[in-house]
Each structure stands twice: as C-alpha cells, then as structure tokens.
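Late entry, written up from scratch paper. The run itself happened at the end of the previous shift, but nothing got recorded in the book at the time, so transcribing now.
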Amino acid sequence: MVDTVFLIKKPADFPILDIIGDNDVLILIQDGVLRQPSIDNWYACKEDVIARGIKIQESKLLEYEEILNLIEKSNKVVVW
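Output as recorded:
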C-alpha cells in the first residue's frame, strides 16, 4: 500500500526528497515531467511525457488510470 502520493506539477516544485518515505510515491504530471528526481520511487504521467516530446524509460511511465488507482489506494495525496 502507498502511504502518500506526491503529485508534482512544475519542475521547480520538488519537495525536499528526504521527506519521501519508502512507502511514498512521487508522480510527475504536467510540466513536472521535465525534471527527474534522484530517488527510486517516482513515476511520470505517460500522456504528459508524450505531449512534451521527452524520453523517460517505459518502466517509469503511468497512464492516468494507473495514477488514479494509486491515488485511491493511498492514505494521503499532496499536490506541489
């Protein structure tokens, strides 16, 4: 189970990565996909990556439905 889902909308809006625990997930959406974090537990919205014409490894891409499923199963959602 995911404790907290952090949704990052802008590249400059990354939280302090030390606050992200092992059971948390960072999801890059909108322009947030333009900057990749240095932690392991992050993903990017596939549709936003395609729209911006950037390359991110396939294993890090989530479609909107997958993101919604993570949000529904998480204990908390934080939008940056």
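The beta strands are 4-8, 25-28, 42-45, 61-62, 76-79.
(Scratch paper discarded after transcription.)
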